[in-house]
Amino acid sequence: MLGDLTPTIKIYDTTLRDGTQGEGVSFSAEDKVKIALRLDEMGFHYIEGGWPGSNPKDMEFFELIKQYPLKQAVVAAFGSTCRPGVPAHQDTNLKRLVESGVKLATIFGKAWDFHVTKALNTTLEENLRMVRDSVAYLKSQGLKVFFDAEHFFDGFKANPDYALAVLQAAAGAGADAVVLCDTNGGSLPFEVQQAVSRVVRQLPGVPVGIHAHNDGELAVANTIMAVQAGATQVQGTVNGLGERCGNANLCSVIPNLAFKLGYQTIPRENLVYLTELSRFVYEVANLNPVANQPFVGESAFAHKGGIHVSALMKETGTYEHLAPELVGNQRRVLMSELSGLSNLLYKYKELHLDKNSPEGRQVLEQLKNMEHRGYQFEAAEGSLELMLRKAVNGYREPFQLESMRLILEMREQQPIYSEAVIKLRVGEELVHTAAEGNGPVNALDNALRKALETIYPRVADLRLLDYKVRVLEEKAGTEALVRVLIETGDGKKTWGTVGVSTNIIEASWQALADSMAYGLLEEQKLTVTNTKK
Amino acid sequence: MLGDLTPTIKIYDTTLRDGTQGEGVSFSAEDKVKIALRLDEMGFHYIEGGWPGSNPKDMEFFELIKQYPLKQAVVAAFGSTCRPGVPAHQDTNLKRLVESGVKLATIFGKAWDFHVTKALNTTLEENLRMVRDSVAYLKSQGLKVFFDAEHFFDGFKANPDYALAVLQAAAGAGADAVVLCDTNGGSLPFEVQQAVSRVVRQLPGVPVGIHAHNDGELAVANTIMAVQAGATQVQGTVNGLGERCGNANLCSVIPNLAFKLGYQTIPRENLVYLTELSRFVYEVANLNPVANQPFVGESAFAHKGGIHVSALMKETGTYEHLAPELVGNQRRVLMSELSGLSNLLYKYKELHLDKNSPEGRQVLEQLKNMEHRGYQFEAAEGSLELMLRKAVNGYREPFQLESMRLILEMREQQPIYSEAVIKLRVGEELVHTAAEGNGPVNALDNALRKALETIYPRVADLRLLDYKVRVLEEKAGTEALVRVLIETGDGKKTWGTVGVSTNIIEASWQALADSMAYGLLEEQKLTVTNTKK
C-alpha cells in the first residue's frame, strides 16, 4: 500500500534510468531486464525502467519485462509533465508513458521558479497547470502517479511558497506520492531536513519521497535526514550510479536505514544479498567495483593496521561498525594475501591437496604467480580445478593442440571473413579440420567443436553462455594484456574458465580449451582412459 | 592561533598517516614530502606526517621534511598515549614523538569504556591516568598536543560520562585541542551533531576537532554537522583515502564548508587548485582517479541528459550546484542516446549544425540508431565528430581500406604469430604493406601506421593510450556483439574512437581507423586536400 504510516520505507530504484545518466554507464535492454529481475527478487518496491518517450531502447525494455512475472516489484516508466501550452492528453511524451503499459508513471515537473521562467520560458501559473493537468491525465488513464519535484530544495530556498504550491498542485490532482528532488545535488543535510519537515506538515496524508544526488558527497546523509524528517519513499541507484557524481547509493542507504535506524525496507533476510547485488550491477555495467565502497566494497571490512587486527581477534565489534555478514560481505585481514587461496584449497578437499606438502606449496606458488600475471580464478573455477588436477593427480586434458591458424579477410564494403584451421591430438587420433565463424573466436570455437564431436558426443551439449574480455594495464594501448573469461553450461551446471595473454586470440583459446576440457571431465573417464594403455 | 572563536575552520590533513592505511595505498618518504609541500602551498593548517613509533619510513619523513621551509603548515607526528602501568616519560612511543623533532604531537587514547576493558585490558581509572600523564609529558617537552579521542561517538553512546571524562582529562592536562574520532565510521549525522554540541558546552574554551570515517558513506556529512555544532578543526584526507572505506574526504569537506556554509578554511584563492591537488595525490599514490568524485572528479560536472544541456545553454546555474571553476574543475558535455540534439549543437557549434535542418535531424536519427546497435559516443567523441563532419560538410577520410588480411598461427609450445596485410587508398596512392604484432590488433595497428607514415608524418606522433573491449549481449557466447573503445593522444590532446561488430577484429579496425583519421584532421587540410583536384 502506498503511503501507510508504518515505518516501512519504500525503496524506489532508478539504476535503469537515472543510473544510466552516469558517464560510462550503458545497459542494453537485456541487461536492464537482468537487473530488474534481481531487484525484484531482493524485494525492491519500485523499479524505474526508463523513459519511453526519449529513446527506443527504453521502450524495448518495457516490452521485454512484460514477459516476466515479477514477484512484487512495480515497474515505473519515467517522463515529464506536458509542455507549456499543450493539454496533457495531446502530449506525445505522456502518451508514450501510457503506451508503455506500466501501472506506475513517475513524471517530473519544475518546482523552482527560476527554472520555470528561465529554462522552460513560461509563467509560474502555466507550470502549475502543466503539473495538475499531467497528473490528472495519467490518473484518468488508470495509472498510479509519482510526482518528482525537480530542483525542489533549490526552489524551496528561493521561493518556498511556490515550491510548495507545485507539490500541492500534484497532490491535489491525485498524485500517489510527491518526491523531493535535489537535482543539482548540492543541498546540505540540515537544509533537507528542514524542507522535508515543512512538506510533511503542509501535506498531511501525502506520501513524500526523497531523490538525492551526490554532488556534495552528501546524498546518503540527505536521504537519511529526509527519512528522519518523515519521507517514506527513497529513490536511488545501486552503487550510486548516476549523472555527474551519481545518485543516492542504495547499497549504503538501505543498510543505514535498516541496521542503524531500525526501519523496515526490503525484507531483512534479503539484506545478505546486498554485496552480491552491488557486484552484479558493476559486472553488467562492465565497471570495476569500487573497492572502498561502504558496506559492500571489497575493502569495506579489510583491516590493515596491526592494532586493529589484534583487537579484532579479541572482539570484532572493536573495529567494525557492523558485522559484514549482515550485508553479505566479509572481513579481510590484509596481511595474509594467501588466505584467499587457502579457502580455495579448502573448496577442493576431495583432491586431497595438502597446503604444506611440496605439491601443495608448488600449486600455491603457481596460483600466486598466475594471479600476479592477471589470471583471476573467482569466476573461473573450471580452470582452477583443471590446474589442481594436473598438479596432484596426473590429470591429462582430453585433447592437445598441435597447431592452429586463423585467417581473417576484409574487403571494402564486404563483411569480414573468419576461418580457423586446427590440428588436435585427441587420444590416439590426429584431427585436422577447419570452420568459419562470424568472428575469430567464434570460428575457433566452431573448429574445436568440429574436431571433438565425433570422439566426444557430449560436446554437442556444451553451450558457451558468456564471453567476457577485460583489458588489463589499460595504458599500454593495443599491446596490453587481455583477460578472457568464458562461462559454459551443459543445461545442468555451469563453469567458468579463464585465459590471459597480450594476444586476445591466445587468451580466448586458453579459456575455450579449458571450457571444453572441464565439460568433458566425466565423459573422458568413460572413453579416453579406456582406450589408453 | 589555536582555538580562537572566529569562523575559521582549521584543516588537519592525515593523508600521509591515516590515508596510507587504505588498501593499495603506499607512499615512500619522498612521496610524502612531495604531498606535504603541496598541502603547505595550498594553505592546509596541519599535516600529519606519520607515526614515528611505528615504522622507520615514517621517521625518515620527519627527517626529510625538516630541510624544507614550510610557509605556514604545522607538521604533526602521530602516536598513542603511554601503555597501562607505564609512566609517560618512560614510554618509548612518546619518546619517539619528541625525538621526531615536530612542534605538534597528536596522540590517541581510548574514549570507549568497552575498549578500555576489552582491547586494552585495563581499568577505566588507569586509562584516564594514561591520557593525563601522556598529554602533560608532551606539553612539558614544549610540544603542542592534540588529543584524538578514539571511538568517541561509540563511547559517548555507551557511557557518555566516561567519554566526557576522558576529554576532560586531556583538556585538564593542557591539550591544545580534543578531537572526536568516529573510528569505526558508523555514526549517523544527528548523533554526531548531538554529541559535538554536548562536548562544546561541556568544555568551554577548548577547541574541538572531528575525525570521521566513511563506513556509512556519511563521513563528509558527519564532519559538516560537527562543524555546525561547534567543532573548529577538521581532520581528513585528500580524496578520502584511508582504512576500509576511507576518511572524511577533504576535497569535499573544504568546498562544502567554504562555498556552501561560508566558513574560512584554506585561503579562498587556493580553492581553485583543489582539482589539481586531488589528481596529484592519485598520481603519487598510483591510483586511478575516481571519475564521479564530487567537486574534483572528471565527471563531476559532466552533463549527459539532453534537457539538462539545453537548460545549461541558457543558464549554467540550472543544473550545477557550483561553478566548476571555483574548485579548478570544468564543465563537460557527454554524448549518448539520452542526450538530445542540444548536446550536439552545444559541443560542435563550429560545425554550424542547425537543429531544425533536415541534415540535423538525420544526424540525430543516425546517432540514436547507432547507439541502439551498441555504439557509445561519450568516450568516443573522435568518431562522433568524424560522423558529423561527413554528414554536414563533405568531409572525406584521409584513407580508405581496400582490403585487409590477418593471419594468426599457433603451434604447441610456441608463441602465437600475428601478421596483418593491408591495402589502403591514400589520396591518389594505393599502399600495400604488412606488419607483425604481439596480437591481432597490434599487428593491424602496426600495418596501418606503416601504410600511412610516408604520406602523413604526423602518424609518428599519435600514440594509442588505451584499448578497451566490452562484450555486449553477453549471453550470446562467442557470437556476441563486441564494442571496442580506443583512446589516442598526440602529447597535447587525447580523443576516443569506437567500433562495434560481432567480429572483434572488425570493431577494432573501425576504432583504429577513426583514431588515425581524427588525428590527421589538421594535417589532412595541409596535404590531401591540396593534392586532390
Automatic annotation (TrEMBL), chains A, B:
BP term (GO), one: isoleucine biosynthetic process
Pfam family, one: LeuA_dimer
CDD domains given in the database record: DRE_TIM_LeuA3 (cd07941)
Keywords, in A-Z order: Acyltransferase, Amino-acid biosynthesis, Branched-chain amino acid biosynthesis, Isoleucine biosynthesis, Transferase
Molecular-function annotations in GO: (R)-citramalate synthase activity; 2-isopropylmalate synthase activity
Source species, domain of life: Bacteria
EC top class named in words: transferase
Pathway: Amino-acid biosynthesis; L-isoleucine biosynthesis; 2-oxobutanoate from pyruvate: step 1/3
SUPFAM superfamilies found in the cross-reference section: 2-isopropylmalate synthase LeuA, allosteric (dimerisation) domain, Aldolase
SMART domains listed in its UniProt record: LeuA_dimer
Catalytic activity: pyruvate + acetyl-CoA + H2O = (3R)-citramalate + CoA + H(+)
InterPro entries: 2-isopropylmalate_synth_dimer, AIPM/Hcit_synth_CS, Aldolase_TIM, Citramal_synthase, LeuA/HCS_post-cat, LeuA_allosteric_dom_sf, PYR_CT
Amino-acid biosynthesis listed as a keyword: yes
Entry keyword GTP-binding: no
Residues annotated as domain Pyruvate carboxyltransferase: 9-272
EC code(s) of this entry: 2.3.3.21
Similarity-based family: Belongs to the alpha-IPM synthase/homocitrate synthase family.
Protein name: Citramalate synthase
